TrEMBL record:
<dbReference type="InterPro" id="IPR049704">
    <property type="entry name" value="Aminotrans_3_PPA_site"/>
</dbReference>
<dbReference type="InterPro" id="IPR015421">
    <property type="entry name" value="PyrdxlP-dep_Trfase_major"/>
</dbReference>
<dbReference type="InterPro" id="IPR004636">
    <property type="entry name" value="AcOrn/SuccOrn_fam"/>
</dbReference>
<dbReference type="InterPro" id="IPR050103">
    <property type="entry name" value="Class-III_PLP-dep_AT"/>
</dbReference>
<comment type="similarity">
    <text>Belongs to the class-III pyridoxal-phosphate-dependent aminotransferase family.</text>
</comment>
<dbReference type="GO" id="GO:0030170">
    <property type="term" value="F:pyridoxal phosphate binding"/>
</dbReference>
<dbReference type="Pfam" id="PF00202">
    <property type="entry name" value="Aminotran_3"/>
</dbReference>
<comment type="pathway">
    <text>Amino-acid biosynthesis.</text>
</comment>
<keyword id="KW-0663">Pyridoxal phosphate</keyword>
<dbReference type="GO" id="GO:0008483">
    <property type="term" value="F:transaminase activity"/>
</dbReference>
<dbReference type="InterPro" id="IPR005814">
    <property type="entry name" value="Aminotrans_3"/>
</dbReference>
<protein>
    <submittedName>
        <fullName>Acetylornithine and succinylornithine aminotransferase</fullName>
    </submittedName>
</protein>
<dbReference type="GO" id="GO:0006526">
    <property type="term" value="P:L-arginine biosynthetic process"/>
</dbReference>
<keyword id="KW-0032">Aminotransferase</keyword>
<dbReference type="GO" id="GO:0042802">
    <property type="term" value="F:identical protein binding"/>
</dbReference>
<keyword id="KW-0028">Amino-acid biosynthesis</keyword>
<keyword id="KW-0808">Transferase</keyword>
């Protein structure tokens, strides 16, 4: 039976998120609590958002301090926090192949829309207006707005909203993506670990071949780090595992630990294609979001923090492989097979564990990056009671 809150939600909210039975009202570290006081071990982290967990004391302090100072001004003015964050992110992104610049937005799909636009604009100002095609990998997910949706593979997201952006194409096979690149291609866009596809790392050799072919043709490589970035894979950027040097990088999710924050990083010669007035964001890079993101990045970029993510991630991997088939992932981003994902997720919640489904028989776990071995042991105790469902 639905609660009064659930009944009202059905009346006043769009129903695009499906059935929601749990009302979460409070969080602390790796745990959240519902409106009846029940505690859950949160292995969703807002879907890879709350990398420092819930109600993190440092994040809370920054939020309180910045809220008393300055929340928002427009990008007509210099914002100190933007400059500070851009310096940090561009240094972290530079693998010795050239400096980057940064622009700040609010969400992952907004970052990807900006990246796709930048790729076409770069080709135009470089004297190649014919280079307008964008190629994406199969099983891709880059967002649900029209540009990012056009490079997202799942047909259920596309139903009834076509035509999509002309020239934006999703390959049928991974090897086929390389063959699709031609002299009319502006860019290819990839996730190094495909989250919505079941948390599956893309083959390193294939990514490197794709990048090499793009470079040969003068096409840009866009790496979507919306879910893999900010330490999720055990490196600050996921592409570090794959020895890539992206022309454009998109970020969001974990960057703000729940405060909407996104970023587009681009090599300087690419970023220069966005001249004044060519692109912008009302809220992107506001002082409030920048204060939080600066704090998050300072914590996560610490080598000791990332070492811990990798160590705990390995402990989690061992637990998953001992109990499930089809375990794939990196760091603290894993997918595994069950008999029925919807049933398994519900049984997990009944036992105080929150996870997400990423397919009819696939579960995704993306816990806060601050979990330790004790949280992994608690997770193991619960999953042993559930089995494969």
């Amino acid at each position: 039976m639905k609660t009064a809150l659930g009944q009202l939600a059905d009346q006043v909210l769009f129903q695009n998120y499906g059935k929601r039975d749990i009302a979460l009202v409070r969080g602390e570290g790796a745990y959240v609590y519902d409106d009846e006081g029940r505690r859950y071990l949160d292995f969703t982290a807002g879907i890879a958002v709350c990398n420092l967990g819930h109600a993190h004391p440092g994040v809370t302090e920054v939020i309180e301090r910045q809220a008393r100072t300055l929340v928002h001004v427009s990008n007509l003015f210099l914002i100190e926090g933007q400059v500070e964050l851009a310096e940090k992110l561009t240094r972290l992104a530079d693998r010795g192949t050239g400096p980057y610049r940064a622009m700040f937005v609010n969400t992952g799909t907004e970052a990807n829309e900006g990246a796709l636009k930048l790729a076409r604009r770069y080709q135009y100002v470089s004297g190649h207006p014919e280079k307008t095609r964008v190629v994406a990998l199969p099983n891709s997910f880059h967002g649900r707005t029209m540009g990012s949706l056009s490079v997202t593979s799942n047909p259920k997201y596309r139903e009834g909203v076509t035509p999509l952006v002309p020239g934006f194409e999703v390959a049928d096979t991974y090897e086929g993506a390389i063959d699709m690149l031609d002299d009319k291609t502006a860019a290819c866009i990839v996730e190094v670990v495909q989250g919505e596809a079941g948390v599956r790392p893309v083959d390193k050799g294939l990514l490197q071949s794709l990048a090499a072919r793009a470079k040969e043709l003068g096409a840009l490589l866009i790496v979507d780090e919306v879910q893999t970035g900010v330490g999720r894979t055990g490196r600050f950027f996921g592409f570090e595992h794959f020895d890539l040097s992206p022309d454009i990088i998109t970020m969001a999710k974990g960057l703000g630990n729940g405060i909407p924050t996104g970023a587009i990083l681009a090599k300087q010669h690419v970023a220069d294609a966005f001249t004044p007035g060519m692109h912008g964001s009302t809220f992107g890079g506001n002082p409030f979001a920048m204060a939080v993101a600066n704090y998050v990045v300072d914590v996560v970029r610490d080598p000791a923090f990332l070492d811990r993510v990798r160590r705990v991630g390995e402990a989690l991997r061992r637990v998953l492989e001992a109990n499930f088939d089809g375990v794939t992932g990196l760091g603290l981003m894993w997918g595994f097979d069950v008999d029925d994902a919807s049933t398994w997720r519900k049984r997990a919640a009944e036992r105080g564990l929150l996870v997400t489904a990423c397919g009819p028989k696939r579960i995704r776990v993306v816990p806060p990056l601050i979990i330790d071995e004790q949280h992994v042991e608690e997770f193991e105790t619960i999953v042993k009671k559930i089995g494969r469902a």
